[in-house]
Design a protein that fits this description.
The chain is mainly alpha-helical. It contains 19 helices and two strands. It has a two-stranded antiparallel sheet with strand order 1-2. Helix 5 packs across helix 11, helix 7 runs antiparallel to helix 8 and helix 14 runs antiparallel to helix 15.
Length: about 375
Amino acid sequence: MSKPLFTHLGSALAGGFIFLLCVPEDSKRGIPDTKDAAHLSNPLRKSTRHPASDTGSNHSSLSPEALKTLPEDDSVEELLAITGIRLPTRAELNTYLADKGYPAEGYLAAGMILQDANLMMEAIIRDPSNPHILFALASRDDFPDDDRINWARQLQEAQPDNSLATYLLAALTWENGAKNPALEILSQVDHPKRFQTFTSESIIGLAEALRATGNNPESSAYYAMLTVDLPHLAQLLSLSQNLQEHAQQSSPEEAFTARRRNAVLGTFLAGENDVISGLVGLSIQGNAYKDLPPDAPFPIEGMNPEALSLSIEHRRNQIRDLPIVTDILRTSPELIEGYGMRALALGEIEALRWLRSRTTPPTE
């Protein structure tokens, strides 16, 4: 059974981090026909995240371990029943791949739907320089550490201006026991330019595969938005904790550098337009200021700990005020199309704000 992966579905339920988990099967070319219905009859297992209101006053309650707990929750199946989504069988996905000429991105999408690492490996075999595929596989712990580091390095070489590629390579290198090389890698993000997560590419690939196998466009987009994998967040949170510990054990100058890099990483994630990335970003910003000596410079220029605390609390309140998408769409399924379109075009948070505007009674 594959390991749980951090997904957007957590933000769809009442304060829950959700992991999409399917039973993987061996595959070579295409997808073998092996008891499709039996393996996909109950493909989901879930976990819950800490609600925004429970992130704690020290803003550091999230941990990579917390992202990998797996209590059961039947509300996901209920949610998918509302949308009418039917997960494709392996035979149907195999037909989809054949019709498309066995594209690498198609194998990646099929692997994400079935949580099959073998299909994802086929994707990178077919297109070994594709940045999206390199990122997707490097982020997942289904693969050997050496391969993941190699893929992250290739991604960084292909996109030297993408700070996320550098952070991911540093995180994997540090986790593999090479602290000093990881710190050297991080020196390349001291002048960041952009932060591309490839989440949109994954959503588009999932939605296309679901549409091509018999689902309607609106429900396909909605399901893809809620279940897209975000395994890189656990990697980045682990890196943040390593930086925090390094700062506590280093000279004042090195400690400032570590805290500043933590703060920049947190700010990047907090600026993403989805709830889960935002919460993880707030936690990482908190890590940057944790145990900050009274005479130390601020990790974020001009922002003292009190100002940071107010900023984080303000952002958490904004997240608390967002509607719970499953509650609204369960009672107003006619809003699924509008939500899905806006989530794809504008991001999850803007789509949730639109839902709130459609369901909140006007004030007199």
